[in-house]
Write a structure and sequence with these properties.
The protein has no helices and 11 strands. By secondary structure, the protein is mainly β. The strands form 2 sheets. Strands 2, 4, 5, 6, 9, 10 and 11 form a 7-stranded mixed beta sheet that branches. A 4-stranded antiparallel beta sheet has the order 1-3-8-7, with no helix packed on it.
Length: 124
C-alpha cells in the first residue's frame, strides 16, 4: 500500500504563487504515475497535471502555462508550482498515484490506485 501526504496549500491573492508538494511512503517503488487533481465546492473533480517516471507530463487546458509539475523518481515525491493564480483556481488539491504508467491515457480519464487527503488552495 502507498500513502500520499500533500503540503504547501494556503491563501494568496490573485497573481500570486504557491508550491505544492506530495510525499509518497509505503510501497512507493511500485508507483509509476503521479498526478495532481483538484475539486472546488459544487464542481466535479478535474485533473490538473500528471507526471510519469519516464518523465512525461500532461496538463489540463485551463493551466495555460501557469503551473509546472515536477517529480523526483528516486524519492517518489511530486511538486506543483502554481504561478499567476486566479480566483477560479480555488479548490482542494489532491495528489494521486498509480502503479501503472498512464502516460498513454487521456488526462482526466485515469482511475488512480491511491489519493491523498488534499491541501486547500484559496485565491482571492
Amino acid at each position: 500500500h502507498v500513502q500520499l501526504v500533500e503540503s504547501g496549500g494556503g491563501s494568496v491573492q490573485a497573481g500570486g504563487s504557491l508550491r505544492l508538494s506530495c510525499v509518497a511512503s509505503g510501497d512507493r517503488d511500485t508507483i509509476n504515475t503521479m498526478a495532481w487533481l483538484r475539486q472546488a465546492p459544487g464542481k466535479e473533480r478535474e485533473a490538473v497535471a500528471r507526471w510519469t517516471k519516464d518523465g512525461a507530463t500532461a496538463y489540463g487546458e485551463f493551466v495555460e502555462g501557469r503551473f509546472t509539475i515536477t517529480g523526483d523518481k528516486a524519492k517518489t515525491t511530486l511538486h506543483l508550482q502554481l504561478n499567476n493564480l486566479k480566483p477560479e483556481d480555488t479548490a482542494m488539491y489532491y495528489c494521486a498515484a498509480d502503479r501503472l504508467n498512464l502516460a498513454w491515457a487521456p488526462l482526466g480519464s485515469e482511475h488512480f490506485d491511491y489519493r491523498g487527503q488534499g491541501t486547500q488552495v484559496t485565491v482571492s
